[in-house]
Specification:
single chain; 7-stranded mixed sheet
Amino acid sequence: MNIIEIKKQHIKKTAEVLTRSFKDDPIFHYIFRSPEKYGQVAPWLFATWVRWTVMFGKGWMIDDGSALVLMRAPGKAQMSFGSMIRAGMLLTPWKLGASAFRRFYFEVVAMLDKKHAQIMGDEPHWYGWMIAVDPGKQHKGLGLQLMNHCFRLADAMNLPIYLETSVERNVVLYNHREFQTKDSCTIAGCFNLYFMVREARLLRARPQEIPLLNHFNN
């Protein structure tokens, strides 16, 4: 299977994969509170996130659509208000409803932004926003294949990768992939968040990666 860059035409399919993959994630259980609400709103929410990535970040997928990774690029780890509007996120408060939006934005996102700023500061880095493998294909090594793709790019640029997870078993997985847990916290006594960094490792870029490196260095 090949890895391809996520484009506009892939938004709907990748949003569907994210919806299926994150239905049991503690963050989204906390935000939506019911499977019905999640099923109604999550596909739209994830589609705006993929659209933002296509426009302002970098995303890759397995060519059959079975797995994907969304990355925020160096210098664009923080979403500007203008970029969120252009990605279609302006309707988020209305789509989620007042209570879910409060939990989403003023509790979860506020904590993610706070810890991200504390840990990374002004250091250039890649932000590992989301990685998903379609249920039923989780034992085929697709997630690892995408992770290694991101590692090669980050190493060629000599930059660290930052990420968060709310799933404890993922902490062990990421530890085995050279991530270190820098901090953790509990949200409303309901679930834990873990903040992790894979430090920079300088490697020579492959020829096919040079255009992409130049794109982000300009």
